Fold:
Amino acid sequence: MALLLDHQFRQLPADKQVETRPFLEAVSYLPPFFDLLGSTVFSPIKADIAGNITKIKAVYDTNPGRFKTLQNILEAEKEMHGSDWPRVGATLALMWLKRGLRFIQVLLQSLVDGEKDENNPNLIRVNVTKAYDVALKKYHGWFVQKLFKAALYAAPYKADFLRALSKGREVKDEDCLEKVRQFLVNYTATVDAIYNMYTRLNAELDYTV
Structure:
């Protein structure tokens, strides 16, 4: 579980503001998660997450004092870019990044909740499909959706996936899932806070790729 638990997300303060620097540090370790899903079809999502992290960091590095929180960045870019906002800069990068983060969150939560295909309980297709449907499907065109359906057949067995999450160590499924549950507490709160911020600032866009 070192992949996740070595890089826990911070507990949010009472005002639910997400500090930029610790957020960027925590998410920088997440792209390799997609290697565990067993298909190169997930490579573009991995690359998209890594690229969007880089874009947000580039903006943050220009003025760390001004951009202490993610909301500081969105509000500053709204002022800077006028009518082009929110389809620009770190605002657009974070919009897509949060969707990748939601995919991870829903997949892991589905596993923790014990959701499974009764006919194929050793597979994680049900969990991956739920995560895709919730987080990404509505933003993908027909062709990308077809690619995803094909990728499902390369999804690993549940036991192999959990072992990979544990960096190859032999760990009981229950112990691994308990650590995932712990990880999800602050992670889910952070993702929810970012989604709520986009709604509050009217920064969400629904176009497909």
